[in-house]
Amino acid sequence: MVRKLYRNYFKNNVFLKMITLYSGITIVTIITLSYLMFRSMSQSIVEKELDIQKNAMESVSQYLDAKYVAAKDMTIATYRNESLSSNLSFFLTHPFQEYAQHKLDQYYNDNADKSTDVLEFLKDQLNNDPDIRNLMLYSADQQNLFTFDQNKHFNMVSTNAAHSYIPDSMAQESTHISLPNVWIRTAINQWDSRLFSVRVPLNDKMTLKNIGQLLVFYDADKISNVLSSYKGKLKGDIAVISVDGRVLYDSSSQYYEKSYPYTEQLSLYSDKSTQPVDKAMYINKLTSNEGGYMVIGVVPKHVIGQAYNGLRNTIIMIGALCIIISIVIPALFVANYAKRTSRIIKFTRKVKNGDLEARIEDNREDELGQISKSFNNMMDDLNLYIDRVFKAEIKQKHTELAALQARINPHFLYNTLEVIRMRAISQGADDVSEMIYILSVLFKSLVQQKEIHLFKDELEACRLYLELFRIRFKDKFSFQIEIDPIHSSRVVMKMSLQPLIENYIVHGIRTERTDNHLSIRVLQEIGFIKVVIEDNGRGIESERLAQIKDSLDKPEEEGGSFGLRSVHARLKLLYGAPYGIDIQSELDNGTTVTVRFPDMEGEGDQYV
């Protein structure tokens, strides 16, 4: 039955196929877009709610950091007051009775300032910060714990190591924000679970020796005051966890004196990123490296999901309406499809008759538009394939270039090694090792197959080559290379300047003179780059100069001056007639070689 329907209505009916295919694509597209839209908008709602939670977490972190800094500022305040710092050191290193006598002596000596009294200082700190529940000083020497509670009641507790574990715990306890130590809780009878502790070491200002510690117990419930500004907006709960995974604060009051779940998993994730630790909830983490705590935000997914339930129903209704319209409207355009089909058939007949330039003008993106574009692309590819026949000639030129390159390297090798050999025989100088090193670096740059060869690479090879002969001829030879840094990144063919330098060393330098000089200048001209190589050597006779110029464009068998001709031939092959070399010389007055390169940066034939 299905096959019969297909043969009768679909097999030879392109229009019905088009309508069915178009409708199917449209339906899938609308469903996909609706899903992506819903997902994007619901994700925006989720991110907004999570951003509120992250802001609340940052507010909690700022509050905790402020308390942490406030505890440290207490010790800094004692160090700034010389008398208070001295009294604090005396207080922590002597029995309390001696400190009382010490203060009486100060009083009778008319030096009684309440601001320098350690106990009065601690009372002032309690007055300044109502969030403090207990403020304590621990004396390492006397092993005593001096405490003030929220009502400023003072008490001194003996913590001798023989009867208490407090000295050991004080020596080991971290300076991060943490839960109060259980031994200190026992000593001061403070068992409120909603507290967090900050410990600050105290050192003698003069000797820098540790003399005790300052401990501050803060009321963790005060953190709820920070979250009050987010009331009605904040969803989920916020908790503060210490380094060892213990709960310092929990807005839900579920995990006090318990281990917080997911602590180990959260340690693997980065800060300020929402992590799927639990499939049923979103969890955020904010870590304070200085305070040593984590602020964790937890919100169930179903709580946030309630915010976009109405959005889901609206998108479903709009999607269904679009699907209905997409099925009805294509049927109205069948006649138009028939016309376009006839146009495609007409085009194929033109191509059959040899018109390879014929193209269908159809900018629509439906199936027939794609067919039209496919035909156009096919014709473009066909014409391009025909053009590729000419690339055989280009490959032949590259073969010639490779042959020229193979001739240059040995030519340079033999001349350079001969110079080093003669230098070693004539003097046996210590600088022979330097010449050999330079030579090795130079050959490395020549052999290295770089995809892009730049002016700075070519000039560096020239500099190394000339440096060999500067060592060889001592004070008889100097050279200079000038180039604007902007030209250093221009592309140039390899071994385009070194053969010209070699010609001067072999034929132009006068060993009997002491003022031999060679200069290389890279200049910018309109549309090209010009390199001028100028020397004060022997020069060239006019007849010989004419022969050299004439031989530049001749095959290798018909002329000498291989180095000059190889550079000139490669420039002509790669870049065309406007590029190459020009030679000007006068006997006994030196030679000037001008080389013209195209102005290219990172494109073209890079390595030849």
From TrEMBL:
Q: Which PANTHER family match?
A: SENSOR HISTIDINE KINASE YPDA, SENSOR PROTEIN KINASE HPTS
**Protein localization:** Cell membrane
List keywords of the entry alphabetically.
ATP-binding, Cell membrane, Kinase, Membrane, Nucleotide-binding, Phosphoprotein, Transferase, Transmembrane, Transmembrane helix, Two-component regulatory system
Establish whether keyword Disulfide bond is in the entry.
no
Q: How does it sit in the membrane?
A: Multi-pass membrane protein
- Chief subcellular location: membrane
In Swiss-Prot or TrEMBL terms, this protein is called: Two-component system, sensor histidine kinase YesM
| Positions of transmembrane segments | 21-38, 315-338
Which SUPFAM superfamilies does this entry report, sorted A to Z? ATPase domain of HSP90 chaperone/DNA topoisomerase II/histidine kinase, HAMP domain-like
All residue ranges annotated as the HAMP domain in the record:
335-387
Enumerate the InterPro entries for this protein.
Bact_2-comp_sensor_kinase, HAMP_dom, HATPase_C_sf, HATPase_dom, Sig_transdc_His_kin_internal
PROSITE patterns under this entry?
Answer: HAMP
Q: Which Pfam families match?
A: HAMP, HATPase_c, His_kinase
Give GO terms: molecular function aspect only. kinase activity
Q: Is Phosphoprotein given among the entry's keywords?
A: yes
Q: Coiled-coil segments, which residues?
A: none
Q: Where is the signal peptide?
A: none
